[in-house]
Amino acid sequence: MSIMLPPGEPLRKRHPRTVIGKAGDGRIWLIAVDGRNKSLSLGMSFAELQMLIARVGLVDALNLDGGGSTTMVVKGAVVNRPSDPTGPRRVSDSIIVRAK
Questions:
Q1: Cα 98 from chain centroid?
Q2: pLDDT at residue 2, as a whole number
Q3: Which of 9, 42, 51, 96 is the Cys-Cys partner for 5 at CB 3.0 to 4.6 Å?
Q4: The pTM is what?
């Protein structure tokens, strides 16, 4: 698997990241990588993200909007540490997962 870099994105620049992917066994993964907070997390470069995707066994993956938009909510609670100083920001898009 390879990851295409957005135009102008240096390979080693770290940012918060958001990924959705499919494992070889069909399970779907949602990954939120915190960043921009030296005491908690520096984020990941695309190269590091690619290594993580391979390590957890994803066969297909899509890098979604990252940066301050990287927020994961489980059962109504934010479970990561968004990078914006004011906390989670309002966004226009989301992925909602519900039990059948």
A1: 19
A2: 57
A3: 9
A4: 0.81
